[in-house]
Amino acid sequence: MSNVMRSTPPLFRLVALLTLGLGCASAPTKPTSPAVLTAQETTVLSQALTEAAVRYRAQVASPGPAVVERADYELVSNGEVVKTGSAKLDVRLEPGIPADITFEERAPYVKNAEDLARLSAQGGTLLLALRGTLVVRSGEQEEKLPFAASRAARVPRLPTVVVEELDGARYSPEEVQLNVRLGVRNPNPFPLKLEGLTFQVAVAGKTLESGTVAQADSVAASATGVYPVEVAVTKDTWGPDVKALISKGVLPYGVTGELTGPLLRVPYSLTGEVKLNVSR
Question: Sheet containing 99-108: which strands, arranged edge to edge?
Fold first, then answer.
């Protein structure tokens, strides 16, 4: 009698099994595999002496419906992080179909004037990279997909200041007009932004003219910007012995100053002699 009472009725066992099975079916399921990158690249859109614009482009595929919400990234120049950021994407993924994502960043890739000078002396190329994670959401689940892609860019090179042209016109035994054309040579394959070019012109050891040219100017890629400076050598500017100086037919000169721009400081010192012409 006791064995019969302790046995479980067949109908009860069936209901219990059905209840257990329904409970398992209602549990959330995970995708069979995570989202993956099927292609990626970084492109340098534009480059200047101290900053660059880069674009990251990729294709992402997922086994189930999902959304690529954003990219949390770092911009890296020659292995050093120069900027961090986050780009909103909101790209929907259909199961098994790769979708395109893209974002852009513009930032300085050099830290200061000393860093720029070091890179210029180094020469060659540098690597600009975008790396980080893509945040992919599927239902309540969030997945972080690592990414990294780089592109080589030419190392920025410092400009040089030269005397592009110089002539001296002798108007009288006591008056000479010097015409100095200062050249800023840009060796880079991109335009060079300038803040200014200061100068001090000395003749036979005496400073006769000073000032600033090339203010808020730019020099085209692989070109030379030319800036004229006029200097009068007279009794009033040089002194009472100017006649003896001019009679030699050759004037020693010196030009010193500094070329400035964004993160750019290039001091210069130029010396030489100018043979005097007779003005008609």
Answer: 36-47, 51-61, 99-108
